[in-house]
Amino acid sequence: MGKQRLKSGEKILFSIFGAFLVLGIIAFIALEVVRSRASTPMFVSTTHFNFSPVGLEGSKIYREARCNSCHRALRMGTNMGLNLDGIGSRRSLQWIEGFLNDPEKVYGATTIDHGSSLSAPKEANYVAKLPKEDLRKIAIFLSELTADSGSAVAKAPPQERSGFIDEMVSTFAPESWKEKYKDVRTKSSQESSPEGGMGVKDSEQQ
Questions:
Q1: Domain 47-150 top-level CATH class
Q2: Are strands 47-49 and 145-147 parallel, antiparallel or unpaired?
Q3: Residue 134: which of 69, 54, 50 has the closest Cα?
Q4: How do the domains of the chain map onto residue ranges?
Q5: What is the pLDDT of residues 126-167, one digit of tens each?
Q6: Is 32 exposed, middle or buried (0-12, 13-18, 19+ CB in 10 A)?
Q7: What is the pLDDT of residues 186-204, one digit of tens each?
């Protein structure tokens, strides 16, 4: 029994799929070529770290304790848990160390993976059982992961205004948004919102 030939519709679908696949591969190669030849990074990262000797020890303990199996730090790890890059700009050393020792007491609520549980063991329950000195070093390491503007992994937006974005906002944004929010790119909004966000409620500025 001979092979069944593809119908004309199937041929068209396979052709379209093949064209998209080829275009995707070409675009990926082009992007990698541009990125490799660029003298500056494509995006400006706003996360920073300048470790003390104790912080370096803490980073080693952090890795050996398999913390990066759930968390991301130094742009390495997974996103299963909280991204820790920049946490030093959001939490104090005292808070971080307290959380590592007694998560739910410091957090003020039930945690998913950290802390103890009588009903079922939590995946990161072992962290609080590490030696206190190790937890102290991990906390110092995490406190030295800082970020601009309190943002963990934010990339600096383009400095210029985008006519396309302005047109999309003016066309599709509900009128209620225009009453509640101000464009932080304008000088008056930046003065009223020094932190700078993509949208600041008028009520929050008071």
A1: mainly alpha
A2: antiparallel
A3: 54
A4: 47-150, 163-198
A5: 888 899 999 999 999 999 999 876 565 665 555 667 777 778
A6: exposed
A7: 654 444 444 434 344 444 4
